[in-house]
Amino acid sequence: MCYIVPAIAAITTTFAWRTKRTLTSFWLMLMFFGGSLFGIVDHLWNGELFLISANWLKDLALGAVITVVIILAWAIILAMAKKNPSFVSYPGVAEVK
Question: Cα separations (Å) of 91 from 64, 86, 97?
């Protein structure tokens, strides 16, 4: 169940990205999808994808922590891109503002 919160964040960010296509929202969207995909793979690996555990609140809290860590990593990437513009200087990518 820990993949639920990042998946909701990924879907929400996708809708936001569709209305305002910025590089920063695209990165965040991809990171949320990666976090939720990781959670799905973990649950598949352990054979518990659709099982609701007795500690479902704990699982949702873990999903919230995963989402916060993704946002922090995204903020670090943005800070690196602002400090060093060559970080995003490949063709077809707008500069981070």
Answer: 35, 11, 17
